[in-house]
Write a structure and sequence with these properties.
By secondary structure, the protein is of the alpha/beta class. It has two domains: 197 residues, 3-Layer(aba) Sandwich (D-Maltodextrin-Binding Protein, domain 2); 196 residues, D-Maltodextrin-Binding Protein, domain 2. The protein is built from 17 helices and eleven strands. The protein has a five-stranded mixed sheet with strand order 2-1-3-11-6. Strand 1, helix 2 and strand 2 form a beta-alpha-beta unit. It starts with a helix and ends with a helix.
Length: 423
């Protein structure tokens, strides 16, 4: 009798186990309102099928999450998926064996992604030798947010917002003369003022011989301009990441460079009319605009998972790539859809955030040579460049000295990275 009861209980619990969806842990770095959107996105996927349950776990800022992931991977206890910011791409690809490339994952599971309709700059960024390595997730471009009420007070609007840094300087001067305490500030200055400035002007950070080459006159001139703005109280330095946000949302600074993915949260915070514009060009360098480097982050499938887990990850990636999911994500956050043409072409009734027009301008040129970062440890180089910028704004180094020192340090990091990668 007891043996029969035990067998029945075992059969009951086995059936419960088989009926339960397979849990798939995903680490991410989206806090606040964006974190809520991630949770809703995951919940919608979980409700769309009954085989898998993605569990979204917030692991802190991008750098904190990447550090935690490295430790968990060494301890053989990593998550199944991890969100990593764009400058961590090379870190995830070297050494080999950390991730399951997306092109392999989808092929093995006999699923496809509409890669032909992805934004060219985004597809190229997360590809190696033409093969997609990660699933682009939160795609952004840097842009200029501005206090439309303040600009209207001095005679500027969306129609005549400056397209060059020289025009921005004229606007900044008028704002200060009108009594505003600060005209401009910037989040993520190494990304926006160095990496994006270089990309938009087709100026490489690293040359074909894997040497850092960004200590040139164009970037030196741009940093000299920003330092001069600081001296004249046009600009305030607010820190390395998003620390400068409060300088803008409080109304202290009238203009603010930040990720397009901040649009929804920014609009909810400010008490003035919010405007957005593309990053300006330097008329002394060139005015022809080139593809920017896609910001944001991607989702990486981690090596060593079970076939069932990989099938669930593939299903989740296929769900994320759906046009309706991409457009909803864009409408709720301001992040850019994974594509803007083909199946991702905007349909009637779909609400486009103002950032979309800038994405079309800065990411959609299919004729340009794509940029792929897999040989460049951009996260380490960005930290070096953040330190260089801090030295400039603290008055410790001139822009030329700071960039010369940064390039020397970047060359050392590049050499070490390539040696460890076996190249």
């Amino acid at each position: 009798m007891m043996r029969t009861i035990s067998a029945l209980l075992l059969s009951f619990y086995t059936s419960l186990l088989l009926a339960s969806p397979l849990e798939i842990v995903m680490w991410h770095s989206m806090a606040g309102g964006l974190g809520n959107e991630v949770n809703q996105l995951v919940q919608a996927f979980n409700q769309s099928q009954s085989d898998y349950a993605v569990k979204a776990v917030y692991k802190g800022e991008y750098t904190d999450s990447l550090t935690s992931f490295a430790a968990s991977f060494r301890a053989h206890k990593p998550p199944a998926m991890v969100q990593v910011f764009e400058v961590g791409t090379a870190t995830m690809l070297s050494p080999a064996g950390i991730i399951k490339p997306v092109h392999e994952l989808m092929r093995e599971q006999q699923m496809t992604l509409p890669e032909q309709d992805f934004l060219p700059a985004v597809r190229a960024f997360y590809s190696k030798s033409g093969q997609l390595q990660a699933m682009p997730f939160n795609i952004s471009v840097p842009l200029v947010f501005y206090n439309a009420d303040a600009l209207a007070h001095v005679g500027w609007s969306e129609q005549n917002f400056p397209t060059t840094w020289q025009g921005m300087e004229s606007l900044a001067a008028q704002l200060i003369q009108a009594g505003y305490p600060c005209a401009y500030t910037s989040a993520y200055p190494a990304w926006i003022q160095m990496e994006s400035f270089s990309a938009l002007h087709a100026l490489p950070l690293v040359n074909a011989h894997n040497r850092a080459v960004y200590n040139h006159s164009a970037l030196i001139g741009h940093l000299e301009r920003l330092k001069s703005w600081q001296n004249r109280h046009y600009m305030k330095y607010g820190g390395r990441t998003s620390d400068a946000t409060v300088l803008f949302t409080s109304g202290h600074c009238a203009m603010f460079s930040q990720s397009s993915g901040s649009y929804a949260s920014m609009a909810a915070l400010v008490k003035f009319r919010l405007g957005v514009a593309a990053l300006p060009m330097d008329a002394n360098v060139q005015t022809a605009r080139h593809n920017n480097v896609a910001g944001g982050a991607a989702l990486w499938a981690v090596a060593g998972q079970s076939p069932q887990t990989y099938r669930g990850i593939a299903a989740f990636f296929a769900y994320l790539a759906r046009p309706d999911v991409q457009w909803h994500w864009h409408e709720q956050t301001g992040y850019i859809p994974i594509g803007l043409t083909g199946i991702y072409e905007q349909k009637p009734g779909q609400k486009a955030q103002p950032s979309l027009a800038i994405a079309r301008l800065d990411l959609a040129n299919a004729e340009e040579k794509p940029f792929s970062p897999y040989r460049i440890p951009l996260n380490q180089i960005r930290m070096i460049n953040d330190e260089a910028l801090e030295a400039v704004f603290a008055g410790i180094k001139t822009p030329q000295v700071a960039l010369n020192d940064a390039v020397e340090r970047a060359d050392f990091v590049l050499g070490r990275f390539l040696r460890n990668a076996g190249e």
